[in-house]
């Protein structure tokens, strides 16, 4: 494996880390309704757990209410139960064949808890980025040991990976800053 291949591979993995962080942060409730909040809710569908989006149509009634319309009438109770028992703290109410999921307004205390949580998620992402840097540097050391590259090439490659790491850590900080502002706006 060459220096360029290691760098490309590391950059791809760092991009995936950023995308994963963004996906995780989308699930954090901000007081506004969006159907992505229910993405990880699993419904018991004839004995097997399936994502809610595979048994119901999700849409927004207004900025604070999600409507869930199961495709089968007999699934209304199972979908409502799955939403209620999820770790989201939501209280769905069924109205015939439709389930309304109102988003409760966030308290100041809950906003601070969510801010702490997203900062923790950001730290996990930064640790993952640093681990990728370490793995790349170890790969460079192995190339030097196998006499495939010179020590000067190794040093330049490590500096390049460090710049890459700094860029991605700054991007994580930017993503966290945007999400924190979103949570703290009333």
Write a structural description.
The protein is 57% helix and 16% strand. The strands form 2 sheets. The protein has a 4-stranded antiparallel beta sheet with strand order 3-4-6-5, with helices on one face. The protein has a two-stranded antiparallel ribbon with strand order 1-2. The longest helix has 38 residues. The chain is α+β, with helices and mostly antiparallel strands and 186 residues long. It is elongated, with a radius of gyration of 22 Å.
Fourth-tier CATH superfamily name of the largest domain: Ribosome-recycling factor
Structural class: alpha+beta
Query: Distance between the terminal alpha carbons, to the nearest Å?
Result: 52 Å
How many DSSP-defined strands?
A: 6
CATH topology of the largest domain: Topoisomerase I, Chain A, domain 4
Number of domains: 2
Give the DSSP E fraction (strand runs of 2 or more residues): 15-25%
Write down the secondary-structure element order.
HEEEEHEEHH
Strand order of the largest sheet: 3-4-6-5
Our Rg estimate from Cα atoms comes to 22 Å
Sheet bearing the most strands, described?
4 strands, antiparallel
Shape: elongated
Give the class-level CATH name of the largest domain.
Mainly Alpha
Average predicted local confidence, pLDDT? 87
- Total count of helical runs of at least 4 residues: 4
């Amino acid at each position: 494996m060459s220096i360029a291949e290691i760098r490309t591979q590391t950059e791809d993995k760092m991009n995936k880390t950023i995308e994963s962080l963004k996906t995780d942060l989308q699930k954090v409730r901000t007081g506004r309704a969006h159907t992505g909040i229910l993405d990880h809710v699993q419904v018991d569908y004839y004995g097997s757990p399936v994502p809610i989006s595979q048994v119901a149509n999700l849409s927004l009634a207004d900025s604070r209410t999600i409507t869930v319309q199961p495709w089968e009438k007999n699934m209304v109770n199972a979908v409502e139960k799955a939403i209620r028992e999820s770790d989201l703290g939501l209280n769905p109410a069924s109205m015939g064949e439709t389930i309304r999921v109102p988003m409760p307004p966030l308290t100041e205390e809950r906003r601070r808890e969510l801010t702490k949580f997203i900062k923790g998620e950001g730290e996990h992402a930064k640790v993952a980025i640093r681990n990728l840097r370490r793995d790349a540097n170890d790969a460079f050391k192995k190339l030097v040991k196998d006499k495939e590259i010179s020590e000067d090439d190794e040093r330049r490659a490590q500096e390049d990976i460090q710049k890459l790491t700094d860029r991605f850590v700054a991007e994580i900080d930017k993503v966290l800053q945007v999400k924190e502002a979103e949570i703290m706006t009333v």
